[in-house]
Write the structure tokens for this entry.
Amino acid sequence: MKLFNLNYIWSFLVLSLFIISCSTDDKSIYEEIETIPLKIEGELKVATYFYNNEGPHEHNFSGKSTSGFTETYESGVKGSYAGAGINVSSGSWYLNDALIGTLSNDRKFGSKSVRIRNSGYAIMSFDMDNGAQTIRIRHAKYGNDGNSTWRLIASYDNGSSWYYAGSTITTNSTTLNTVTFNVNETSSVRYGVYKTSGGSNRINIDNFEISTNTTGGGGNGSPSQDSNITFGNPSNAGSSANNYYLSKPDFVLSYNNSRGTANWVSWHLSTAWTGSTPRCNCFKQDRDLPSNFFRATTSDYTGSGFDRGHLCPSADRNGSQDSNENTFYMTNIAPQAPDNNRRTWVNFENYLRSLIVEGNEIHIVSGVSGSGGTGSNGFASTIDNGNITVPDSFWKVALVLPNGTNDVNRVTTATRLIAINVPNDQGISNDWTQFRTSVNSIESLTGYDLFENIPNAIESVLESRVDNRPSN
């Protein structure tokens, strides 16, 4: 009987630990702690703007406290709500009643985000030496929790006292949305997020971005390397297998694990990205995909009758060797009929690059649709034993602006927006203008919301129009 009781108790303990380890929630794991309140001295008037997706953001920065950063928290480790510091790519942060969330209920672009509860906060432990121009923060509700509010806070005395900056933000969505604060601060300053209501309801914070006057944007009409996803995340890509968000220094994409290719790739093009670096022809597996995803290799295309077709072209990223090599990740490649790739598609690519030489910058999204195309070996729906879907068509949309800054705000109903949808077949016309269509048509085909950060009144006019301007 004693043996039975011991076995029973042991089995119960093992089962309990298993249940806890598999939990997608944390209420039963972390004990209550006492939140240490921050000293709030007052309010700063700051213009605040809201976007229903990842929102516009700048190119990757490296200067950190001098020229800005985007903090993704991917290198952070903190499994307890108790107050403690963490070291991440931007520097040291302090989290109180907050932790680094990795559960399935945590809303995140990669594998981690900050999770805050009660009156907790996540604050920088370092200053922006030259001030800051814009703060952009992505936020969402954790799991099925109720709504909460939070504030951006700023400190000018190394964190001894703080000021609320901008409007009170309500987190009421399970999708990561963006808030932009135009702080326009020239003094040395540090920032953080302070949860102000909602009690035990939790919020997630991800991709905390600070840009400065020296970050991105080619002032006075000069070319620059801007955000690769300024006008929105077309499919609200996140962590799902068939809509997986993947950000590279040279483009952003949504990966579809079932198809073995990207759904779409988004990038910015100006002469700041181009140069004379030779094409590397160095196709390579993308190990940034989760290990349980299908990861295509160059040999998967061998003998298929289809080209390894770039979505973001190699020649759009020949400003440096690293930049050019990044376009050869297989996540940027899809099976493309040779006549499409080497004639129609490349002619349109060349045309867009001719526009940037004339003093323009272009925001581009390109993708695939449907299944089944005709390559040099005839028709196929898939290659590599079904691992990679052959698209029915390749599409691309391009928004053209003169070089400048604040691109979203410069778009008008007169802005040029070009859309094409090209059959993935042999024997098609070399003339890309024969395949012009409207953005609305591309959206109907794919279900995506392209250029969603453009004000609706302007977006509806632009996206209903088929470009008919001269092509030479």
Remarks:
- Residues 344 and 431 are 6 Å apart (CA to CA).
